[in-house]
């Protein structure tokens, strides 16, 4: 997710013009002043009263997939789908078939996908069948910021950041009454059981039952859908007959697989005749029947949204996160795939720690990461972060299962959950969607899994520590570097990083060259 934010170089930016000219309806924060308590700060995250909802935590991969499948199956009028990555593997192809089937029942379907995310999800063995979906009656498909347009705008503005600005939201809204938001894209590793797929992710979503929340999410969706940044997908596809058969059969096979029912002989024979790659893939995931659902809870919900921009930290999500850190009085628990902070973000954590707030962060190590570049920056930052921020503890996943959830729990009462990573891509560039939920029972549910992962300890999770003297002060080398007591190199193979001096130069040079705010 650091594409563009960390891999940019070139001319300085001409200005801070937003990529999106519209204003999201969920970007209008309420009145706020530093020093407000957590309740008042939560109320400042949107204008007007909080929306009442039933909220179900989806922190199990199979349950997250089942929740999406059942939500779509129950659609009677409308389906809106917005994703960054949409892979046409077993899961994506089955979802295409599901959407086509609902459209043929008369349901109005809109699908919004980001061009950069689509490019990242393309695999040689997958047939591109989006054109088939777009050609189906009752379906519209649009792409956010086509790659050609991105590159042209970046060249015209002499700003490589412009090419990276994306729609990173993950939203499903059905019948303007029920929604799913969170960190998962559409691809096998987000939904397969960890025992079935070595690189399956840990992630977090929420299913929300509330017409009020659904209306807000639909308005957020409409802001991008109706903008000049979204272009229709061509209603054509190579080998349409094979695409149609694949989508139809994947839908039938996935539904049977999840219900633990055998395929009919005719269906099986048709799948075998076509030799679809997704069938062999699906059979590798025997644990797709979901465990019992976590009980939904009644909660107050506020939707917070940001639109794509070219290097501005003045978005609603970043401001909301900072407000909640300043309002926390006891504890903050965060799960985030990446920890790459700007100086301003690091200062917010330092201020929070100096007020006595205990902060715990669970993130990725070189073993579990899906982004080696982010790890290079993390390796530079984490020792200095621990030396600077009081009461901060850092834990890193030690297995190949990526920590992909984007969630923070404040004082065991307020949860911020969605698509926002703790890195420059989310802080400064991409459009992000988060929900703030006030509910102690829901906060306990969200905190339970990361706390259990941390409690299991090595070799599944490691705590990164710096050396401290008898007074608890960081120990430094004669050149001022923080001495590491235990870090990535103590449990992972040495990574092929550039020499430290070169790394440090890159850490400082990239923001300066690209016009981004300085990194910590």
Question: Which key features would you list for this structure?
Answer:
37% helix, alpha+beta, 17-stranded mixed β-sheet, 520 residues, 18 helices, disordered N terminus, single chain, globular
Describe the structure.
This protein is of the alpha+beta class and 520 residues long. It is 37% helix and 19% strand. The chain has 18 helices and 17 strands. It has a 17-stranded mixed beta sheet, with helices on both faces. Helix 15 (372-388) links the parallel strand 11 and strand 12. The radius of gyration is 23 Å and the shape is globular.
What is the helical fraction, as a range of percent? 25-40%
Q: Number of helical runs?
A: 18
Strand content: 15-25%
Instruction: Name the poorly predicted regions.
Output: 1-17
Tertiary shape:
globular
Structural class: alpha+beta
Could you tell me how far the N terminus lies from the C terminus, measured between alpha carbons in angstroms?
18 Å
Radius of gyration (Å)? 23 Å
Overall pLDDT: 90
> How many strands?
17
